[in-house]
């Protein structure tokens, strides 16, 4: 199982974590923000957005909580923690942020599925493995699709470069021919050649 990420969040600072996630994927997460001993308490905002800036989850003065959303498109998602310094205090000590974000097969609660469907432990493990293998197949299908798109882009670029090279060569040959004829006329006019 994956372990949560933890980091120190200094006063009046902002730290963001980004991850690319496939479309139609369940994303769940838990977070906990704690101030060091002797501090007044944690004070930070959490905002989760996609690359277009749409807010998927936001919490002001967050201390502990959970979130969940399903992605609509393959996109880059960003979780930002922003420390808020209370008015009238000096430098705020660093806050400890713990974030456990899961998506896809990791995000499914198989214990809950086992209770609802009355599955045995072996059946639950088989279901988890089935979902995991389906996820791997979907990842490979996505990679194959991206490879085809990139190959098409590469071929298109190569074709454009070829046409541009041919056009450049024609321009250079045309310019060289014009220069020869122009200089020949110029030298004949100056009577340097016959």
From TrEMBL:
<dbReference type="GO" id="GO:0005789">
    <property type="term" value="C:endoplasmic reticulum membrane"/>
</dbReference>
<feature type="domain" description="GOLD">
    <location>
        <begin position="14"/>
        <end position="168"/>
    </location>
</feature>
<dbReference type="InterPro" id="IPR009038">
    <property type="entry name" value="GOLD_dom"/>
</dbReference>
<keyword id="KW-0472">Membrane</keyword>
<protein>
    <submittedName>
        <fullName>TMEDA protein</fullName>
    </submittedName>
</protein>
<keyword id="KW-0256">Endoplasmic reticulum</keyword>
<feature type="transmembrane region" description="Helical">
    <location>
        <begin position="161"/>
        <end position="183"/>
    </location>
</feature>
<dbReference type="Pfam" id="PF01105">
    <property type="entry name" value="EMP24_GP25L"/>
</dbReference>
<keyword id="KW-1133">Transmembrane helix</keyword>
<dbReference type="InterPro" id="IPR015720">
    <property type="entry name" value="Emp24-like"/>
</dbReference>
<keyword id="KW-0812">Transmembrane</keyword>
<keyword id="KW-0732">Signal</keyword>
<comment type="similarity">
    <text>Belongs to the EMP24/GP25L family.</text>
</comment>
């Amino acid at each position: 199982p994956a372990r949560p990420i933890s980091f120190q969040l200094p006063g009046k600072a902002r730290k963001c974590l980004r991850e690319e996630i496939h479309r139609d994927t369940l994303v769940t997460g838990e977070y906990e923000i704690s101030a060091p001993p002797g501090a007044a308490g944690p004070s930070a905002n959490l905002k989760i957005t996609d690359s277009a800036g749409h807010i998927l989850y936001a919490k002001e003065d967050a201390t502990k909580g959970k979130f969940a959303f399903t992605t609509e498109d393959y996109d880059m998602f960003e979780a930002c923690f922003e420390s808020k310094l209370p008015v009238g205090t000096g430098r705020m000590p660093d806050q400890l942020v713990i974030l456990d974000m899961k998506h896809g097969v990791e995000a499914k609660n198989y214990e809950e599925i086992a209770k609802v469907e009355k599955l045995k432990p072996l059946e639950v493990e088989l279901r988890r493995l089935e979902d995991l293998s389906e996820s791997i197949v979907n990842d490979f299908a996505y990679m194959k699709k991206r490879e085809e798109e990139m190959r098409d882009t590469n071929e298109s670029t190569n074709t454009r470069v070829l046409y541009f090279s041919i056009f450049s060569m024609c321009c250079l040959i045309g310019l060289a021919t014009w220069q020869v004829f122009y200089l020949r006329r110029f030298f004949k006019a100056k009577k340097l050649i016959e």
